[in-house]
Amino acid sequence: MSDPAPHRRIRAQGSAQGPRVMRFLLDAPIQAERNADFGGPDRGAPLARALFAIDGVTGVQVVGETIPVTRAQGCDWSALKPPVAAAIREVLETSDAPLGRQADAPAATDRDAAMLAAVNEVLEARANPSIARHGGRVSAEAVENGIVSLRMSGGCQGCAASSRTLREGVEKMLRATVPGIRAIVDVTDHDQGTNPYYSGKPGASPGFFRPVPADAVCVEDGRIVIDPDYLAPRLGLSVEALEAGFGRGDIVTERLTGGASDRIRIGVRSPQRAWAAEILSDGTAHEIPPPQRRGASDEAKAALAKRIRNHLLTLPESGLPVTYGQLARALGLYWPGAIRRITTSLEATMHEDARAGRPFIAARVVGRGRAGIPGKGFFDLARTLGRGPQKEETAQAFHRRMLVASLRLDAPGPAPASKAAP
User: Fold this and answer.
1) Second-level CATH architecture of 11-104
2) What is the mean pLDDT of residues 95-119?
3) What fold is seen in the domain 109-199?
4) Which of 49, 221, 294, 308 has CA atoms 20 to 30 A from the CA of 9?
């Protein structure tokens, strides 16, 4: 008598796609080198036949070891999860090709559609939650013969670090998760944006256009009504937490300025996230990037960065460079955390200088070490901004070059006259 088949571990998790989608996670890919996107029962795919036989299942995707399942409106996941998990387990234990044999592989257009769905699932579940903390977003716009077109929006558009984010983060993640990708292309118009993350301005994001379902946002008697089931997951909340936040005043709704005169812009902001949409005169709506809001900490950092710049410009060349501690004391910052505030504000000046095409004035400040160079963060940020050390250039040589370049900046007031004096 043979040993019984091992019990497969299946975990259910919510999805960033919304409350109607539940992700069923296994410990290994469903079928090697195969992903799928089913809109109904597929004669050649046992998994699709089994899941669509369950009343209330309206969509099934397969992305590696993850099976996102979509439920019908009005159904309850508490009743659906057990039969869905049981169906998945039974198919995997009785079939060695749950998505169909290779002979039944879909046409190229179907494979591209399945890959597009798989890529967006990975972006929503793994990449965008992290990127959103910087005000940005990445979405897959199209797939053609295995070539994926990605568009960056919000804080990623025009950002100096966008290329590094795409190549070293997003692309590696997608290639490791979604099989069959031939190439990944960034189709973002970065020149059209105004670097919204670093400047605090909204910028133009032509690729950020996601239609809002017709019943999710509407205008009634001049009031804008938003379906909590639609809004809650976009703010990373449950419906109950959303309603409680509105009750406490932690979550606020506001009319936004800008846009055409025949359109209404609405924004909802929680302490952690923001969401915004534009409602057209015909009642249709689409999501737009929420505007950046400068908090009190941002204002304080900007004010300190300005003080630092003004102070460094007044120091004689013979007194440079100065250490972080000397700069903090010169500005009257003695309490714990002062050095951290100094380094953070110096990074803000580096962003400003990079946008303006100026040498880094932050090169005038160094650490106390024997090397007499800035901290590691200076060099890391310089690379991120596309102005790091040249090939085979040492940190000391790069810093010296930046320091000499920064000393060519004209100091305010009578500096030009004093330079001409013997």
Assistant:
1) 2-Layer Sandwich (3.30)
2) 72
3) GMP Synthetase; Chain A, domain 3 (3.30.300)
4) 49
Q: Which of 167-181, 184-198, 252-266, 296-310 has the lowest mean pLDDT?
A: 184-198
CA distance 81 to 20: 12
Task: Give the strand pairing for 147-154 and 183-186.
Answer: parallel
- The fold adopted by the segment(s) 296-415 is Arc Repressor Mutant, subunit A (1.10.10)
pTM for the full model? Answer: 0.33
Give the separation between CA 156 and CA 44, rounded to whole angstroms.
Answer: 41
From the CA atom positions of the chain, what is the Rg in Å? 27
Average pLDDT, integer, range 98-105: 65
The string of pLDDT tens digits covering residues 323-359 is 998 998 888 876 667 788 888 889 889 988 888 888 9
Reported residue count of the chain is 422
pLDDT at 280 over 50: yes
- Three-state secondary-structure class, residue 364: helix
Structure tokens at 258: 């800008």
How many CB atoms are closer than 10 A to CB 373?
Answer: 22
Distance CA 164, CA 173 (A): 13
